Amino acid sequence: MAEYGGKVVPADFTSGNMLFEPILEEGVFRFDCSADDRDAAFPSLSFTNQKNRDSPIMNQNVPVYTPTFECVLSQQIVVIELPTGTSFYGTGEVSGQLERTGKRVFTWNTDAWGYDSGTTSLYQSHPWVLAVLPNGEAMGILADTTRRCEVDLRKESTIKFVASSSYPVITFGPFTSPTAVLISLSHAIGTVFMPPKWSLGYQQCRWSYDSAVRVLEVARTFREKGIPCDVIWMDIDYMNGFSCFTFDQKRFPDPKSLVKDLHLNGFKAIWMLDPGIKQEDGYFVYDSGSVNDVWILKADGTPFVGKVWPGPCVFPDFTQSKARSWWACLVKDFISNGVDGIWNDMNEPAVFKSVTKTMPEDNVHRGDAELGGCQTHSHYHNVYGLLMARSTYEGMKIANENKRPFVLTRAGFIGSQRYAATWTGDNLSNWDHLHMCISMVLQLGLSGQPLSGPDIGGFAGNATPRLFGRWMGVGAMFPFCRGHSEAGTVDHEPWSFGEECEEVCRLALKRRYRLIPHIYTLFYIAHTTGTPVATPTFFADPKDPGLRTVENSFLLGPLLIYASTIPDQGLDELQHKLPKGIWLSFDFDDSHPDLPALYLQGGSIIPLGPPHQHVGEADPTDDLTLLVALDEHGKAEGVLFEDDGDGYEFTKGGYLLTHYVAELHSSVVSVRVSKTEGSWKRPNRNLHVQLLLGGGAKIDAQGTDGEPLQITMPSEREVSDLVSTNKKLFRNRIESAKCITDIQEVSGHKGIELSSTPIELRSGDWALKVVPWIGGRIISMMHLPSGTQWLHSRIEANGYEEFSGVEYRSAGWSEAYAIVERNLEQAGEVESLKLEGDIGGGLVLERQISLPKDNPKVFRVDSGLIARSVGAGSGGYSRLVCLRVHPMFNLLHPTESVVSFVSIDGSKHEVWPEAGEQFYEDDLRPNGEWMLVDKCLGLALVNRFNINEVYKCLVHWGTGTVNLELWSEQRPVSKQSPLTISHEYEVKGIS
After folding, report:
1. Is residue 923 among the annotated active site residues?
2. Which of 210, 487, 576, 955 has its CA 20 to 30 A from that of 522?
3. Active-site residue flag, 965
4. What is the pTM of this model?
């Protein structure tokens, strides 16, 4: 050991400024801790060409910002300090706020069903930060490691990466704008694959449409109701016993016929494939995989077997070229059934009945030398989904080289956009997730993945009509647009929530289809140059700090979408914070309180098309509309990309890229083609130009596309009249619109009205969320100083629950609780909430949740089983009851988590996940305190309780969760003898 900075440090400790060399292009630098570390670094799986990372270029420039490093106990800690006022974005697929200062995430692909704003590891890993400097310039920082990586942005204007040694750090910039950084990043990691045009239409999914009959019924209903849609998805239940590459012969007896019927009605079909292959002799996929020796191995050299949907499964080792080729051949044959696209799910990889939710980290991958060779799963875990998506993409391409593959992947790594689209995973049907999904889509775009979107309406739980309609309004504007919901929920198709919601969904999707020429053009530009498709509003003015935290609006090129994500606030009640310059509002005569507001930036032209029922209805000779907003100089420009919508002729010149300009001279606006690219001949079609005047007003002109068109501007008085008239029309449309009414409203005790929005308690170190209407449960336990979410919860289950018996989920966990008392800290009282739930038999469960002002580090729960009206015939005593406190906690790092305590008898205990379930009674009970320790975070959640009230303690390890239960004695209660448990929680740092 040695002394460093007044601290004792290990002998292998090293630190200093990182060494740099210029790579790739001007402004890009690679940093390593030493020359030896540079030589020892693993191959890059993020760069498209590893030589670009490993080969220096001739350049005399030096970096503006140099990271420092510390290497301690095989961990490399990298810190880069930037100017005060820097804003952080990116970090890939992350929940929570748009601007990331104060947040910390861990790149470890995780099956994160029901995640919330505090979840620190989701399905994808992007060890990447986009930093926007105070002057509007920007730079990007990539920690080029596939291993678990901590990305810590909790210190203002400071980025810290922590991962296993050694790995290089790549910096991009500072450049003049965030867009310039993302273009430079794309030169390293590649651009998004060019999607087939049909994949930009609306897509309908459910777990599951359980038969071909049901699939066709859903498709037919879309057409009958005139709601645009292009794709129906088949979830896992189409398979025979959940076995990949098979079809259930009763429910999906003839997939080719099903797909033929779908195609005749303008629908494509996308089918799920998971990585877990059923271990069953005679199953052709398992047999061929075993013959080809493609399975991931355990440390002892035998194939790893883990349980997933089919039961015991083996897993392809996609780090081997022979395994990727084997999978690609299976995909090629699968496509012959008429498969249009493939959905790779569960590919973190997820494994059931495992505390870590995945396979052991000491499993062995026999990887190709260019990927890193033979390594443990801890090295390849984060790229497993990327490599599976790559194999699927390559198999589809082999099947038909004249069609563009469409792959959707749940798990991924930075660079996955080369092969697949993604979605934001198993979200929840609530307003928090509606709001959060905008930032999540934007963060993925700022991390190199522009083709993403959420499950519209929310995957888990039941949407309400207003929530679903509002979600469809904004979801129809996302790059990837799909509705999806889980088994056991109500139907979540656009017509499932009443006529008002159905009409809002129809209007929203017609908007999208009008905008598809614009969206498709944005994807062509993204594919060819690396620009994002959807961007935060601040991209319109990166120098404006007031725009950097705006979370309910975003840009599609020059098109600004402003959405309301607050239940009781419609379009007409929104306060719109616009970037500087000219922003002209418009609609399609479809404004509605539950639809977003639309603005076009001055100086812009965007192309529009007819609102077809599916993309395949479009024809090159369809009328083309140009929407024009002049800038302060009376000019505007825009671009339209056209090709076959599929295939690769566009790479050989088979396309038409048209640049349009508009200019105002002497009260006449001239609209013309300024230049074109590609060998496609311009279709013979009508041209409509809509010139925006402000206030939603516009004037229309018609001509022939390719020929100059002149529009005489009205006088200032006429413009004023048009704007005034249009504002009245807009107001009439808003006031006459059939608003979506929500149906879920619960009347609380003492006249308190509750919607399905959780009650928040916030004071000191804690922010809690409580849902009185289902079990009075606490669904969020956010520790503010560390940014750690401790509870694993959804609104209707899990989180902090209490039961009235020894049986799991006995009375008390699902009943509606009444609010007896609510004290607000703002009113000078302790922040607290008192609830009670009637559990029958004259009994109530009473719970007081409080955040004491005299000790801001803790929150306290005082619970009791109380006899209110027990009949005299029973002697005043209730049935036999037990107060069982049942919190379910998140394990952010399952292999580094342990329950620790000292028993009454003085014995010390450390209970690890391998212990499963353990009871502690009598003198083995914790002596009034036990703690859940996360050694990776260096934090412990301490639970203190009154030992005289607690007769048993239970530790139960689940999949990525642990329960720390407190049980009272089991006995009848009377008015004079309730059962009570008082306890509190506090988070402490550990060394």
Report:
1. no
2. 576
3. no
4. 0.89
